[in-house]
Specification:
about 300 residues; alpha+beta; Alpha-Beta Plaits; 2 domains; four-stranded mixed beta sheet; about 10% strand; zinc efflux antiporter activity; Protein p34; cell membrane; Cation_efflux_TM; CDF_Transporter
């Protein structure tokens, strides 16, 4: 079992634990904001399960029906998480609406805040783990799950502030008001997660830094070739697809051309983790004089 899968499984258990703690906080206080916070956490459990399924699917090798692999499954999970975040925000707005209609005095507010604070600390730590491990392993599903959890941390902090101010001032309308403010923040976060995931589904190219690294490696390692042109890249989950045309002198043997390609591919795989490389070899008369110049 890979480290990414283990983290995804752990996320389900952490999400369930945090959800239980937040439900206790709501039960102690009757706070609309704390209830909204707990509702948001139900989404964490669902999205953690979706992330695990996506990661397991993405790890499957290529087959006859999916010759390029299953890497994009992680992007579908990330889109789902973004949508679920937005749904959670709408549920919070609904609860806040009823809170405005009938504001109420909270029961045991301090105790509820302490319990909710414990859940917030757990979420903050786990969000950091997910984002750092997800970026290290280039897993969009884990990164999206971590960002989702971080919005939950922001939610809990805003809720705690609203509840605390309501206790101090006696203006219980602050409880649903803070829930509305936090819901708007969650909506923005959900939009960003969906936007980033859709860029992967649309075969967006790698970052400019990675692209420059690829160009430098081809220029340095393709000795014996003339130039490389029509370089294209795209990312799909943990895989980065790189393809280009490599122009070689007309008298180059098939064996020598293959040696050049092997050298370039090995260097790219060492520098770009998860690289999937396709090189189309062309004779010298196909030179465009606009591509990557190969250094001697």
């Amino acid at each position: 079992m890979s480290a990414t899968v283990r983290i995804a499984i752990a996320s389900i258990f952490v999400g369930a634990l945090v959800l239980g703690i937040k439900m206790v906080a709501w039960w102690l206080t009757g706070s609309v904001a704390l209830l909204a916070d707990a509702l948001e956490s139900t989404v964490n459990v669902a999205t953690a399960i979706a992330a695990l399924v996506a990661i397991r699917i993405a790890a499957k090798p290529a087959d006859t029906t999916h010759p390029y692999g299953h890497h994009k499954a992680e992007f579908f999970s990330a889109v789902l998480e973004g949508v679920m975040i937005i749904v959670a925000a709408l549920l919070i707005l609904r609860e806040a609406y009823f809170g405005f209609l009938a504001p109420r005095v909270m029961d045991l507010p301090i105790e509820g805040l302490l319990v909710n604070g414990a859940a917030t600390v757990i979420n903050a730590i786990w969000a950091w783990v997910l984002i750092s491990r997800g970026r290290a392993g280039r897993s969009p599903a884990l990164v999206a799950d971590g960002k989702h959890l971080f919005t939950d941390v922001v939610t809990s902090a805003g809720v705690a502030l609203g509840v605390l101010l309501a206790i101090i001032t006696g203006w219980w309308m602050l409880d649903p008001l803070m829930a509305v403010i936090v819901a708007i923040n969650i909506l923005w976060s959900g939009f960003r997660v969906v936007r980033e995931s859709l860029s992967g589904l649309m075969d967006e190219a790698v970052s400019e830094d990675t692209l420059n690294k690829v160009r430098e490696i081809i220029s340095k390692e393709a000795g014996g070739a003339v130039e490389a042109h029509d370089l294209r890249t795209r990312h799909a989950g943990q895989a980065i697809f790189i393809d280009f045309h490599l122009v070689v002198p007309g008298d180059t043997t098939v064996f020598d051309a293959h040696e050049i390609c092997d050298r370039v591919e090995a260097a790219l795989r060492d520098a770009v983790e998860g690289a999937k490389i396709t090189i189309h070899v062309e004779p010298e008369h196909k030179q465009k004089h606009t591509g990557i110049v190969v250094l001697d």
